[in-house]
């Protein structure tokens, strides 16, 4: 906010005036960059190779459909195996041609509806039909896709597998995509079924035993952490360590249950909050034992924003320099679900010298609003978005705009899951100033 020049001594008014003009210029620059970022975002919703929607574009279209009250049909995921072998044998162009032709078949099957390439070897489409006709469409599509794969030279006669979940009833895009993914994993090589279709409710009820185990472990605080370091990124490459991120697993005593297994059963607010509380307690112990002075990042869920016990914990938190600072990291979608609660939580946390971090950043249209309202310590960009930015100039321009805005607000933009050191220079050119992944640090063994 500009300073009122009339309220300062006359000799200071020229300095205050210059300061106010600088603030105005910075605000205009940020607004212009925000507009530019939104324009590039709109250009970055399409997969460059296939012309289908990319993951971000598909999810946005699915969310728009849900908001319009359209809750019908079957959401299918299809995945092809063996692309690496095909690439090694015949070259990248063969793989690209196969994916492009497969995308056309999927577009035809969608009949003008939703479809997209959501990962390198994975596609999604929505078949707006009842179960029997939807199965016919998907079985026929998979047969055509397998024919293409055989023609391209794959050894597996059934390289494509698929699963679909119904889109009726309650739920959002994340829940439907998760249900479709679980349906996909019901399919096993050698199964007689041509396509795995399952009702979301049935999929969830089938996990009852796992759900009970998960709740019991959370209730008893059986948490183990794997740690990964985030490093500073400069023009010469990865530099010193910035913070240690703790990733929780549930410890059964015999094995560790990773997040990919347990998160779908910890989705209820009460269970999520209990998990967050257990993670925070164990994280404090972990940081106290580590005593390396690095900040500690703890992943928490949307439930933490409004849970009474966690808010009480935040309000009574006391910073201890011996264990370093604490950063509570939320996903972008969790914060956007209730931005007012997120802002109130951030203000409370920062008043107690806790910091906020955001992960999976950049996927939603109003992601920029979080930067100004929450002033997080860092933003960890979506892996999909970052990889697109390295390949697609439009996505690269969009990401550069976001990293530029973050840096202008003194927020650290971080690239995650970076696998190859050769990409560090390109990531720095995109504006990233922090990096995490195998290219810069191996994962530390779990600490029980």
Characterise the protein shown here.
By secondary structure, the protein is of the alpha/beta class. It contains 17 helices and 15 strands. α1 packs antiparallel against α16 (393-408), α3 (83-90) packs across α4 (92-110) and α15 packs across α16 (393-408). The longest helix is centred in the N-terminal third of the chain and has 31 residues, at 13-43.
Low-pLDDT residue spans: 442-448
Known CATH architecture of the largest domain: Alpha-Beta Barrel
**Alpha carbon gyration radius:** 24 Å
What structural class results from the helix and strand content? alpha/beta
CATH homologous superfamily heading of the largest domain:
EAL domain
CATH class of the largest domain: Alpha Beta
Q: How widely separated are the two ends?
A: 48 Å
| Secondary structure: number of strands | 15
Write the CATH fold name of the largest domain. Answer: TIM Barrel
Side-by-side strand order of the widest sheet: 6-7-9-10-11-12-13-14
Largest sheet: 8 strands, mixed, barrel
